[in-house]
Structures are given as structure tokens and as C-alpha cells.
Amino acid sequence: MSENLTGVIERSTELRRAFDRSFTETPVMRATELDDLLDIRVGLDPYAIHLDQVTGVFADKPVTPLPGSFPELLGIAGFRGAIVPVYDLRTLLGYARGGSQRWLILIAGQTRIALAFDQFEGHTRVARTAIVEESRGATQRHHVREIVRTAGFTRPIVHLPSILEMTRKRAGQGNL
User: Fold this and answer.
1) Across 64-78, 86-100, 114-128, 131-145, least confident range
2) d(CA 167, CA 161)
3) 39-42: long-range contacts (C-beta < 8 A, 24 or more apart)?
4) Domains of the chain (ranges plus CATH)?
5) 72's torsion region: left (phi>0), alpha (psi -120 to 50) or beta?
6) What CA–CA distance (Å, rounded) separates 73 from 65?
7) Model pTM?
8) Residue from 163, 36, 42 nearest 102 by CA
9) How far apart are CA 32 and CA 45, in angstroms?
10) C-alpha dist (Å) from residue 88 to 28, 70, 113, 149, 168
11) Are the C-beta atoms of residues 148 and 126 closer than 8 Å to each other?
């Protein structure tokens, strides 16, 4: 009986120490407190895109130009059996058209469009608290509503819903 009591006392002491230790350890972030971003470049400038708004990243995909379209539309490309309009992210963000845009992302959602950009730099996972709203003012950029700030970098986040809205309006006017 005393061996059983000794075991209980040792176990309760171990549990108490673990409980006390839990207050001194840094809490582990939950997945719901993190955001995944794609790191890209448009021209020489860094940007980010929310990964959950993208269904694919493609390199060197052929784009067929369309005549008589507006400047943001580069043409069309085939993705998984569907023909999708491809827009120039550089132009949408207010840059002059040009550059080697070898990368495409396919945007998630009911309206299927792709965006062409200059460089794919990788993936970043950040705490949700690292993402802040961009201040509204004269310096606000086209299709940017948030900025990600970490100790290592700061990047504007491309607001894909505003790009989709703009393309929907153009499609309603008889354009792609």
C-alpha cells in the first residue's frame, strides 16, 4: 500500500512541476494564428499574396495574346482544361508594362483569372499580427490594402479581391 501511495505522490509532484513550467515556456502558435504568403517581385519591388487565395503557381506557361484588349490583359492561357484570361500584375499595380513575366498564379474563386508577375521568391508563414492595414491616403497603392511587417522584411500584400472585382466589371462591359 505504501508503494502505491509513493507512486501517487511522485506522479502528483511531476504534474505540479509540469504545470508550473508551462507558465515559463513560450506558447506555441496555433495554425489559426498564422498566415501563409507567397513572396513575389513586381519589377524590383517585393510583394506578398495570401496563399489561400491562390490555386496554383506556374512558370513559363505560354500566353496567347488577344488583339484589341485593354492594357492589363496579356491574353489567355490553358489551365487544367480551362481557358483563362491572364492579366499583367505589373500594370494592375500601376507600373509601366514590360519586364520578363515568366510566373503566373491562378486565383482561387468562381471567376477564374491568372496574374503574370516577374519573380517568385518563395513562401513565408507569419503571425497574423504581423499583417496590418495600409493607411488610406494619397500614397495608397493600387490593389494593396495590407502590409506584412516582420523583423526581416516589409512587403505590401496584393489585394486579389479588388483585382477580381475590377476584372468582373470589365467583363460586364464586354471585355475580358
Assistant:
1) 131-145
2) 10
3) 39/120, 39/121, 39/122, 39/123, 39/124, 39/155, 40/103, 40/117, 40/118, 40/119, 40/120, 40/121, 41/117, 41/118, 41/119, 41/121, 42/89, 42/90, 42/93, 42/95, 42/117, 42/118
4) 31-172 (2.40.50.180)
5) alpha
6) 8
7) 0.76
8) 42
9) 29
10) 39, 11, 11, 26, 15
11) yes
Full 3-state SS string of the chain: CHHHHHHHHHHHHHHHHHHHHHCCCCCCCCHHHEEEEEEEEECCEEEEEEHHHEEEEEECCCCECCCCCCCCEEEEEEECCEEEEEEEHHHHCCCCCCCCCCEEEEECCCCCCEEEECEEEEEEEEEHHHEEECCCCCCCCCCEEEEEECCCCEEEEECHHHHHHHHHHHHHCCCC
Q: Using the predicted structure, report yes or no on whether residue 100 has a pLDDT greater than 70.
A: yes
CA dihedral 96, 99, 103, 106 (to 10 degrees): 20
- All three cell numbers of 55, joined, read 490555386
| Single-letter amino acid, residue 29 | M
If 0-12 CB within 10 Å is exposed, 13-18 middle and 19+ buried, where does residue 32 land? Answer: exposed
> Does the pLDDT value for residue 174 go beyond 70?
no
Q: Rounded to whole angstroms, how far apart are CA atoms 72 and 67? A: 12
